[in-house]
Design goal:
This protein is an all-alpha fold. The protein has helices at 23-54, 56-67, 69-96, 103-131. It is a multi-pass membrane protein. Keywords: Heme, Iron, Membrane, Metal-binding, Transmembrane, Transmembrane helix.
Length: 132
């Protein structure tokens, strides 16, 4: 008969404190965080659209909030979350196609997602200010 551990001294599942954080692990966590942040950003977008439909006075009020330093910082973060989540989705699509599973490819894709999301976000804001 097999020995049963009656004292409950079974090994626990490894936790984040056990694992050494690697770039792909951090990217997975960031992908989830940016996905959750997009819910908040979508509410901001809906509020802006509702304000536009409500009339010029309320629209000016909401634009005043979004035009403040804090408002622009939040909108910049929303833009980054949107771009980062999109590039993370493209990274997952590449994996779904069966490519990019090697260590070097995974690291390259993770770095490209980080660098690309920051660069595209800054580029979008520069273009937005130039068009404005």
């Amino acid at each position: 008969m097999s020995h049963v551990d009656r004292q409950g001294n079974r090994p626990l599942s490894p936790h984040l404190q056990i694992y050494k954080p690697i770039l792909t692990m951090v990217m997975s966590i960031l992908h989830r965080i940016t996905g959750a942040a997009l819910y908040f950003g979508t509410l901001l977008l809906a509020w802006w659209l509702i304000a536009a439909a409500a009339g010029p006075a309320y629209f000016d009020f909401v634009n005043g909030i979004y035009g403040s330093i804090l408002g622009r910082l939040v909108l910049f973060g929303f833009t980054w979350a949107l771009v980062h989540h999109m590039l993370g989705g493209i990274r997952h699509f590449i994996w779904d196609m069966g490519a990019g599973f090697g260590r070097e490819a995974r690291e390259w894709l993770a770095r490209a997602t980080i660098i690309g999301s920051v660069a595209v976000t800054i580029l979008l804001w520069i273009v937005g200010y130039m068009v404005r």
